[in-house]
Design goal:
Elements: H1 7-27, H2 37-56, H3 60-66
Keywords: Membrane, Transmembrane, Transmembrane helix
Transmembrane segments: 12-29, 35-55
Amino acid sequence: MLFSLPHSIRIAFALGSLVFLYEFVFVKASEIDWFAAPVVTVLTFLLLQFIGLLLRQPSESQRDNIS
């Protein structure tokens, strides 16, 4: 269902996620202890992979226009 969203909405979601990621990782970094750092690193990597997947996946309307 998420992949059927228009491309502009997916880009807005990706940008919002990056802003959240900046706030969480860089601004709040002083509050995160050393044990949580690997968890944040893995979550950051997974979020960036998901954003890349969202931006590469064509929407259903674009697929319908191709065929």
